[in-house]
Amino acid sequence: MLGTEKRRSRGRAFGTRRKLFAVIGAACAAVLATTMLTVNASAGQQKAPAKPTASAAGKNVGYFTNWGVYQRNYHVKNIETSGSADKLTHINYAFGNVQGGKCTVGDSFADYEKTYTAEESVDGQADTWDQPVKGNFNQLLKLKKKHPDLKILWSFGGWTWSGGFGEAAKNPEAFAESCFNLLNDERWKGLFDGIDIDWEYPNACGLTCDTSGKDAFANLLKALRGKFGDKLVTAAITADASDGGKMDQADYKSASQYVDWYLPMTYDYFGAWDAQGPTAPHSPLTKYDGIPKEGFNTEDTIAKLKELGVPGDKLLYGLGFYGRGWTGVKQAEPGGTATGPAPGKYEAGIDDYKELKSKCPATGKVGGTAYAHCGEQWWSYDTPETIGAKGDWAAQQGLGGTFFWELSGDTPDGELIKAIK
Length: 421
Prior knowledge:
This protein is an alpha/beta fold and 421 residues long. The chain is 28% helix and 18% strand. Residues 1-41 form the signal peptide.
């Protein structure tokens, strides 16, 4: 998942047979019975994966980062006070680590040890010293009590921690067993409704290069589906639709039968890792004249996944609640040269929407997203207007919903999430 600091991060089971409501004559009944027996016998020979709990239709998935409780001072209570909880269907909790072929805790202090006062707590009740779980996990349990339909998944990997997936892929069943046991730990029983895998990138390069083979991703997800049954299993995947790019390196088609939905990371296509530019929006919806690389836009990403055979309702489109920018830029329009990344509050070249909307207001649009030129800085980011237009496009495409990275980048009153259709 390409994103902020620390982050760049069915198949169908055979359904039950419907009962016959009427029989016209004994002979017809016999024929029908024989036919049904034949079909059922054939179905019994199939080994289809367990059916996911639901289609992706209408999903709105937001990532919550465990490190956000530090510098960003963003806590679970902010999800409630911003109004975001009313808009979310799912929260992906980022991140758990992958070590020694197993799912492991990412940050125990933030996850379940940090003590919250009554003022900081979702329900106004302070933590006590002897309760079994505190931290984000306890606050999320409280949030679920307020919003019973809200589902929470634990996301593993990300840009920084994807290096462990290669080892996990050597024994997918053991990996799945470890993940299932961790998510169902008695201390936070009832918190997690499933697992999200953020492998950057199967059989390709991210922070490190993976050589697990083209089938490894599908094998890993198959094992997770087998272990998690009707719990949610999802995966954040590459948005690289270029010829020979990351999407061609793993079998995303086969793997898709085991997930409830994919989250293709349709942002961070371009950024100030190319320090001299050319400037380009990091989350273009469509290609445009002068776009630096073919296949690096949401429309092409979704089209390629559909061509591979992934159903549209298993695809969520991704939004970044942040912008990426350069400095030393003279040209207002995209395609200009730069001298390096623009300064950001937490990291050079990147800043939250809540900062950029006033620091460097949008001055134009290209490829279905906004850009801004202020002084010698050039930024691109989504606004409520462009998010609304992207939602219209996604509905026309029959996509299953949206997801975004990540909650703390929005304004205190949830300006961006409230623009999601």
